Amino acid sequence: MPPARPAPVRLNAYVLAADPAYLAASVRAYYDRVDRIVVSYDRSSTSWSGTPLPVEECLRIIKGLDVAGKCEYVPGDYYRADQEPLDNDTHQRQAALDQASDGADWVLQLDTDEVLVAPATFFGAIGQAHDVGATALDYPSRWLYARVGDAPGGGRYLEASTRFWRPVAGYPGPLAVRPGTTLTCARQADAAIHHRVDLRARNTDPAHGPDTIVHEVIGLDEAVVHYSWVRDDEDMRRKFGWSGHSAAYTRPEVYRRWATRSRHPRRTVLTTPLRRHPEWFRLSTIAPEAPRD
Q1: What are phi and psi of 210, to 5 degrees?
Q2: pLDDT tens, residue by residue, 48-82
Q3: Model confidence over 108-156: pLDDT tens digits?
Q4: Which residues of 132-141 are buried (b: 16+ CB within 10 A; e: fewer)?
Q5: CB 53 within 8 A of CB 14
Q6: Overall pTM > 0.70
Q7: Of 57, 128, 178, 193, which has the highest C-beta tally within 10 A?
């Protein structure tokens, strides 16, 4: 008899309904691949730092794309005045992950400003992680700082790079984890067994050492695109205020640097070797771009 086929990997996801900017593009990229999506939101529309959130706008977007009824809406109280914003961030993610773990082999934990541009590669990496017994998938992201112009078929961006403008991978935390994983800080899961995907055979993330093990290599155009700081002026100020890192981001000089670099991208790139990590940028073309909602 032929060998039995392995059972398909069961996938769920969770979404934090707080930031509408790239929400639809993010969810649509994996919607057909998952069985269930837990939509976690603060019932009082309050951020981890105590600022207002556009929760109702996010819920309208999600309900509009949930054509198969996969979404489960789970409100909670995630602003705790006696806790640091980053602790509130981790608290909400852990609650959402626990709720999404039921019936899953893996749970996706992509933020809503992260867009899969090569879903087949991403889900293939989950399959590899599953087969080798890993409990977390570290998959590379391209971290975008600002949109600075147009390019044929897409846009021009300031993108995080090495000191001398080579592409780097960003890892805010595993983008998929096993059910029951304990998060330690936002999406990070220190105790997990990591399957690491990178852009080169040697680690490209300046935040990790050169001896960091890479298990799988993909092309730059297969990495997740993280539209983290790609906002207009008003949205950028709001994002700085509601972030789990609001204590650092709301310092006036952070906004001033972002605004100045957005207006002078070539100067920003040329002076990159003179600055320290993580203030290194290159000019990149992203095509196709994720539409803003």
Answers
A1: -65, -15
A2: 999 999 999 999 999 999 999 999 999 999 999 99
A3: 999 999 999 999 999 999 999 999 999 999 999 999 999 999 998 899 9
A4: eebbbbbbbb
A5: no
A6: yes
A7: 178
Q: Copy the structure tokens of residue 126.
A: 């989950």
Q: Is residue 2 included in any domain, yes or no?
A: no
Residue showing tokens 């992201």: 141
Residue 66 covered by a domain: yes
Tally of domains within the chain: 1
Owner of token pair 């990159």:
272
**Domain of 221, in residue numbers:** 11-286
Residue 129's alpha-carbon distances to 138, 195, 253, in angstroms, are 10, 6, 41
CA angle, 107 as apex, 125 and 34 as ends, to 5°? 80
- Asked if residue 6 is part of any domain, the answer here is no
Q: Residue 170 has what DSSP assignment? A: B
* Length reported for the chain: 293
Q: Which element (helix H / strand E) includes 234?
A: helix 233-242
Rounded CA-CA distance 60/156 in Å is 30
Q: Give the residue from 144, 124, 111 showing the smallest Cα distance to 19.
A: 111
Q: Is residue 1 part of a domain?
A: no
Strand pairing class (136-138; 176-177): antiparallel
